Structure prediction request, 544 residues.
Amino acid sequence: MSRRPPLMLQIVTGDPRPITRQIMDGIKRLIAGGELVAGDALPSVRGLALQLSINPNTVAKAYAELGAEGWVHARAGLGLFVAEQRQRLSDEERGRRLDEALDRFIGDVIGLDFDSQTILDRVAAELSNYASRKTA
Amino acid sequence: MSRRPPLMLQIVTGDPRPITRQIMDGIKRLIAGGELVAGDALPSVRGLALQLSINPNTVAKAYAELGAEGWVHARAGLGLFVAEQRQRLSDEERGRRLDEALDRFIGDVIGLDFDSQTILDRVAAELSNYASRKTA
Amino acid sequence: MSRRPPLMLQIVTGDPRPITRQIMDGIKRLIAGGELVAGDALPSVRGLALQLSINPNTVAKAYAELGAEGWVHARAGLGLFVAEQRQRLSDEERGRRLDEALDRFIGDVIGLDFDSQTILDRVAAELSNYASRKTA
Amino acid sequence: MSRRPPLMLQIVTGDPRPITRQIMDGIKRLIAGGELVAGDALPSVRGLALQLSINPNTVAKAYAELGAEGWVHARAGLGLFVAEQRQRLSDEERGRRLDEALDRFIGDVIGLDFDSQTILDRVAAELSNYASRKTA
DNA sequence: GTGGTCTAGACCACG
DNA sequence: GTGGTCTAGACCACT
Prediction:
């Protein structure tokens, strides 16, 4: 029997990211951080919706997109499970996505007048929480 | 009289950011990079709209938001000018925005399976392009 | 100005595929077949919903998934446009997906007691409609 | 007395097909491939459920559908047996199912950018594995 | 006008 | 019980 614990997820209403995105990011991090491993069960759509006090459809949408991106796979009647991680994107696509994320991040941050080193330290700190599968 | 050159801005239709955002980011970068300095005039709403082949309302909205954030100020009958450098946001707000940008960036990048050092190097490289005022 | 014609799409109620999937497959074929090329506008969410007599949310879902798969990109306030085609998936992932599709197809067809040549001819006929970008 | 060996069936949890479908497809393949011939006994519902570590209800459902499609028939008190080869579906129904399977297959494969010949070769290879009865 | 998000509730297939 | 699909309608941001 797979365990199905309440996840350490929280929805911040002030966050400009849509709820769906917050759920996706949160679960991606749990997986990337090793707190959820392949085969682990995720909370049910209805259960997580109750836990977060949001509409089940919103959770279902987040789960569906995570499934489409290959992070989890659903089995009707059984629930959702963390999928084996595998490289789904071509190297070119990965490069393009890194460029886009970078562009956006710099655009968001450049006007805040932070010291470059401060920003780099923060990025490094966040990244260190998620030992990449390559280095693990 | 201030110079009023066409700005080095371009709108990329494939970019997921809304056009308003692209304009704002672009102008912020020009200011952060020292290509626009306090007192410089910005192109007129209609002029920039023509230059970029977009709706003047879109430019007007971008200018309005840049004004609200303190990057530019309008002088009646003369046009828009780059504002004096000053602290435009509260420290609390700046911190919050950094956190959000960071959250989103990590979320975008976490599944791409890049080495942490690779990401940090790219961030550092981008930041160094816009650090002129700090280092000058 | 981009043209926005009614697409040659039809929804078959008897089809076991969900409506969303039928829309996606139909649009993929129009793109793969060259009837829609990069930059072409697609019908609006509400317009297509009216045309097909279905709920706008259903169309929106299909469009969102097409966007996630890189076939189209949406620009708020403007509409949906056919994206440039590019190889997004790794070779391994492409191989896995071909294997899966093949498995399912054979499973569906093996019990129907058709002659192998009949099946092959049908597959060939369908494929010939969509000159691959490689051979085009 | 008919032999009742454990079938060469396996359930793959990663497979997107429901378990019922996997069982049906597997048995159809064994019959189509000649490994099960008319009159052979199938494992009992409980036995197959144990063998595959799944719920007996799931096996029972698969068997029921195989019976409805005419692949097997139950003999009271004795168990399930492979039925005589006969035309199980109307031509119209067979044609419809082929169309559907084809539609889905093309939809799955169209975006993967494989050469048509590659796909055809793969289909041919898979079909040749299950053509024994036709060619025998 | 455009697409995007969220809520609410119904219905289905699966186990 | 599980996830998946569809409908219906509200609200938001963008142009």
About this structure: Residues 44-46, 60, 63-64, 74-80 of chain A lie near DNA strand F (CB under 10 Å from a C1').
